[in-house]
Amino acid sequence: MNYSQKIQMLIIVLLMIIFSNYQAAYGAQDIEEIKESVVKIAVIDQGGGIETGTGIILKIKDHKAYILTAFHVIQNYKEIKVTLYKQPTLIYPATVFQKYDSANDLAIIRIDDVEQADSKSGFRLGDVDDVKETDEIIAIGHPTDHDWEVSKGNIFKPEPTQFRFSGSAIDPGNSGGPLLNSDHHLIGIVTQKLTDKYSYAVKIDHALKILDGWGVPYAFMRDWKWYYIGGGSVTAAAILAAIFWPKDDGKTLPEDNKLPDPPPAP
Q1: Nearest C-alpha neighbor of 188 from the set 172, 170, 208
Q2: Which parts of the chain register pLDDT below 70?
C-alpha cells in the first residue's frame, strides 16, 4: 500500500468513526443496550423486610461499579444486594458511601469484583432544557413482580430541579431508576411517587452537579462529548486522539467511607 492509499484509508476510517459517534450522540438509543446500565437493588431493612429499588451505573473502574440511586431506597438498610441485567443469577453485596443528599433523594452505592474492568455508563444524556409539558417519557425499573420493566408516561410539569410526570405503571420499585426522553436519552432519576397519578424525577443535570461536589466518578455521552466527573467534557476530536494516542486519565476515586450503621430497630 503506497502513501496515497494509506491517506485514503485513514480518511475512510476517520469518516466511519465520525459517523459512528454522530449516530451514538444523536440517534435514538436501544432499550436493551440501556438496560445493561440499570441495576436491581434489594434492601434488607432493620426489621428484616425486603424492599426493591433501581439504580443506574455511573461508571465502572478497576472492577468497581459506582451506582446512583434514590436515598430513600437504602436509607434504612441492614444489607444491600445488587443484581446486574446481564447476570440475573449473581447477587453482589453493595457498599453505601457517606455521600448522600436526602433533600434531593440521591445516594451512591458501589459493588466490587464485577466482570468488566473499566466501562463508561451506557446512558446518553438528553437535554433537560428541551423537555416540555406532554412530552413522552420512559422509565425503567423493578415495579412489583416485574424486573427491568419499561413504563411509558408523559411530562406533566418541568420544575427547576425536577420533573413531575405521569405513568400508571410507576411504583416504589422504580425509585432510583432512569427517566428517559423519546430518544431514550437520560433526563432524570426517578425519586418518588407523589400520588397515584404523578411521580417525581430529579433532573440529570442537577444530579450531576451534586455528584461533582461528591467526587464520584461518572462518564456519560451527550452530543459529541463525553462528560466526566467535575463537569469536564471530551470532544469528538479528543475521542479520536484517545483512539490513536491512548493514555491513563489518572483520575482518583473516592475513599470507601460508609454511612454509619442505622440504629437498631425498636
Answers
A1: 208
A2: 1-3, 5-6, 13-28, 98, 168-169, 223-266
Q: What are phi and psi of 251, to 5 degrees?
A: -75, 145
Q: Where are the alpha helices (DSSP H) in the chain?
A: 3-26, 31-35, 71-74, 204-214, 236-244
Question: How far apart (Å, rounded) are the C-alpha atoms in residues 188 and 106?
Answer: 11
| Residue 69 cell numbers, joined | 440511586
What the block records as the C-alpha cell of 40 is 436491581
Task: Tell which residue, 78, 54, 55, has the closest CA to residue 65.
Answer: 55
pLDDT of residue 98: 66
pLDDT reported for residue 228: 60
Compute the Cα dihedral for 137, 138, 139, 143 and give only its sign. positive
Rounded Cα gap, residues 155 and 169, in angstroms: 14
Asked if 199 and 164 touch (Cβ cutoff 8 Å), the reply is: yes
At residue 223, the pLDDT reads: 62
Distance CA 113, CA 65 (A): 8
Strands (E) located in 23-125: 38-45, 50-61, 64-69, 77-84, 87-101, 106-111, 118-120
The pLDDT of residue 236 = 46
pTM of the entire predicted model: 0.76
Residues contacting 174, CB < 8 A, separation 6+: 54, 139, 141, 142, 143, 151, 190, 193, 199
pLDDT tens-digit map of 113-151: 988 777 878 889 999 999 999 999 999 999 877 899 999
Residue 203 CA to residue 49 CA, distance in Å, equals 30
For the chain, the residue count is 266
Grid cell in block for residue 236: 469528538
Is residue 97 a contact partner of residue 216, using CB atoms and an 8 Å limit? yes
Chain position carrying cell 444530579:
207
